[in-house]
């Protein structure tokens, strides 16, 4: 089990790409997910093209997808690590004010749906 | 210079903010503010209602800034629930959340009842009822089909509705053959010695200011839809201010024009129909009817979107049944939450129509929204320390002391409205029922979450 946020995101990408049930709801979904730590200068990008996470990088991917196709998640590293490793309910983290989400509601709900499928939070 | 995409996002925020406010129920509330009751218009001092609307506008302009600050401290959250959770505590937060959800359901009932009453004066009752049911069900279906389609619809319909209502209002003013308030029953006036200004002041009422606040209902919803962190500083505040201005201009215009074009035989309880009848041509009536159906669609749509998202998040939190978290095949539409809220809205409509509760419910909704705004203001005071945790937030310039003062004022407005409502038995029973219902629901959801804490440590 990876311990760094970067490693956790790599594993998350593998889990998402390898899950058929996730693919059913992410078909035609193209988005740039920016993940920013507020307690460190670390910033990561998950580049999703047609439902597949193609790249996990720690710098701007260079390709701009436009405002409607990007979402930014901000929190401290521990919270982000817990969310992307399935240890914390992302919706609850958002309600508690620990996870800041900037972006179209469609993208945040879809990310929440992925968490539901992968880890079965209610 | 504002980028085109940013401008587009700004229009979206404005459309969301105006969505519920440009509604049939607000037209009705406006007529009540003017003194229309039970088929008669007792015009109060000509400028009393516009002045009350301007007072409400002033209050909204001040309080919207702390609301935006809250939204910036909790971006992407489901609004009221998150804003109040840590600052007010679990039980009060759930009570405020359910009150807010309750308002959205009450509005659905009020809107439906008013539209039905309007339609039945033109077409047979069974046809009117079918048309109303079809309208409501079509909005539920649009939302079940996906959020994106509902957003586009919201933008277009809100714009059409605002421009259409303004056009009807000023056309009626320009071309009305009446243009006199002499035919309208006057309110018993003060002794001749009182100056006009004193008479206006005496006719201003706190209850009517609360009704004026109701005209801006739903304006806070825009703050929950922030797309970009940078929007918090320029685009969202401007878009929300634009929304407040649009609503204020519309209703102040109406409040100014209505007494001028009023005719004694006018008994309809909708302002747009007054304008169309003043224009004395059938096609204006059809345009007014079209706008009214559109008004029901936009307010019902905006309310359904806001409420279903809240219900979905409450389901995710474990406060409501986990069935509420079921998403559609697109992975983004909370189908069960939309269906549940839609069903409750239909039931609310049925109850309002059957029991003839339109006036009481509209006054109750005005009282509740004032209390909810008071709770949000208190939350904004108690969230100051959170600013250290959020790197990018909108800093409201409203000082803490003024926020507390405003919270007290909004509580007073809510209280005055409740006392006004409880003057008759039906109002007292309604208030008691709603209060008991809200407290029971809060206790139930709190105990439910205690029994079934959210599973936070599951993995594959």
Record keyword descriptors for this entry.
heterodimer; A: 122 residues; alpha+beta; Nonspecific Lipid-transfer Protein, Chain A; B: 460 residues; mainly alpha; three-stranded mixed beta sheet; 16 helices; disordered C terminus
CATH superfamily of chain B: Amino acid/polyamine transporter I
Q: Could you list the spans of chain A in which at least 5 consecutive residues all have pLDDT below 50?
A: none
> Whole-number average pLDDT of chain A?
86
- Note the gap between the termini of chain A: 24 Å
Question: Largest interface, by Cβ-Cβ below 8 angstroms: which chains and how many residues each?
Answer: A-B, 42 and 46 residues
What's the number of helices of chain A? 5
Distance between termini of chain B? 49 Å
Q: How would you name the oligomeric state of the polypeptide chains in this document?
A: heterodimer
Identify the CATH class of chain B. Mainly Alpha
Please give the radius of gyration of chain A in angstroms: 13 Å
CATH topology of chain B: Amino acid/polyamine transporter I
Largest sheet of chain A: 5 strands, mixed
Query: Which percent bin holds the helix content of chain B?
Result: over 70%
Mean pLDDT of chain B: 83
* The CATH architecture of chain A: 2-Layer Sandwich
Report the CATH architecture of chain B: Up-down Bundle
Low-confidence stretches of chain B: 454-460
Main sheet makeup of chain B? 3 strands, mixed
Q: Please count the helical segments of chain B.
A: 16
Principal-axes shape call of chain B: globular
């Amino acid at each position: 089990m990876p311990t760094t946020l970067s490693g956790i995101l790599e594993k998350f990408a593998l889990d998402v790409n390898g899950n058929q049930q996730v693919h059913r709801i992410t078909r035609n979904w193209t988005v740039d997910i920016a993940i920013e730590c507020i307690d460190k200068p670390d910033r990561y990008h998950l580049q999703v093209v047609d439902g597949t996470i193609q790249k996990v990088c720690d710098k701007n991917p260079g390709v701009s997808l436009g405002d409607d196709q990007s979402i930014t998640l901000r929190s401290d590293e521990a919270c982000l690590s817990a969310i992307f490793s399935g240890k914390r309910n992302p919706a609850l983290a958002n309600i508690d004010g620990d996870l800041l989400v900037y972006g179209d509601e469609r993208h945040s709900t879809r990310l929440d749906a992925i968490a539901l499928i992968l880890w079965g939070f209610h | 210079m504002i980028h085109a995409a940013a401008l587009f996002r700004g229009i979206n925020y404005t459309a969301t903010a105006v969505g519920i406010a440009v509604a049939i129920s607000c037209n009705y509330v406006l007529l009540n503010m003017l003194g229309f009751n039970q088929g008669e218009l007792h015009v109060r001092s000509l400028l009393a209602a516009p002045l009350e609307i301007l007072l409400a506008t002033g209050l909204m302009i001040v309080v919207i800034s702390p609301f935006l600050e809250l939204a910036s401290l909790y971006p992407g959250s489901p609004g009221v629930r998150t804003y109040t959770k840590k600052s007010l505590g679990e039980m009060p937060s759930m009570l405020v959340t359910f009150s807010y959800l309750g308002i959205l359901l009450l509005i659905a009932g009020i809107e439906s009842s008013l539209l039905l009453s309007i339609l039945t004066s033109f077409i047979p009752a069974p046809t009117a009822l079918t048309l109303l049911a079809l309208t409501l069900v079509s909005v539920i279906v649009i939302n079940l089909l996906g959020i994106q389609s509902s957003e586009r619809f919201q933008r277009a319909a809100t714009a059409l509705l605002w421009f259409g209502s303004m056009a009807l209002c000023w056309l009626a003013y320009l071309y009305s053959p009446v243009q006199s308030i002499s035919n309208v029953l006057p309110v018993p006036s003060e002794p001749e010695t009182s100056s006009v200004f004193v008479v206006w002041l005496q006719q201003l009422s706190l209850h009517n200011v609360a009704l004026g606040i109701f005209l801006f209902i739903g304006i806070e919803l825009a703050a929950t839809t922030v797309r970009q962190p940078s929007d918090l500083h320029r685009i969202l505040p401007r878009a929300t201010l634009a929304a407040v201005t649009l609503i204020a201009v519309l209703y102040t215009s109406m409040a100014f024009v209505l007494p001028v074009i009023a005719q004694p035989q006018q008994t309809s309880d909708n302002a747009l129909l007054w304008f169309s009848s003043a224009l004395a041509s059938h096609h204006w009536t059809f345009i007014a009817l079209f706008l009214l159906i559109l008004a029901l669609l936009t307010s019902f749509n905006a309310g359904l979107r806001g409420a279903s998202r809240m219900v979905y998040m409450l389901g995710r939190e474990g406060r409501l049944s986990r069935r509420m978290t079921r998403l559609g095949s697109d992975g983004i539409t909370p189908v069960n939450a939309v269906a549940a809220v839609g069903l409750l809205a239909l039931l609310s409509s049925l109850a309002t129509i059957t029991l003839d509760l339109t006036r009481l419910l509209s006054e109750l909704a005005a009282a509740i929204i004032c209390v909810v705004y008071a709770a949000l203001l208190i939350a904004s005071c108690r969230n100051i320390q959170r600013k250290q945790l959020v790197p990018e937030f909108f800093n409201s310039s409203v000082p803490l002391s003024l926020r507390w003062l405003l919270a007290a004022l909004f509580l007073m407005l809510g209280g005055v409205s409740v006392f006004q409502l409880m003057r008759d038995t039906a109002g007292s029973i309604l208030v008691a029922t709603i209060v008991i219902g809200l407290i029971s629901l809060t206790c139930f959801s709190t105990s439910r979450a205690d029994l079934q804490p959210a599973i936070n440590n599951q993995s594959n």
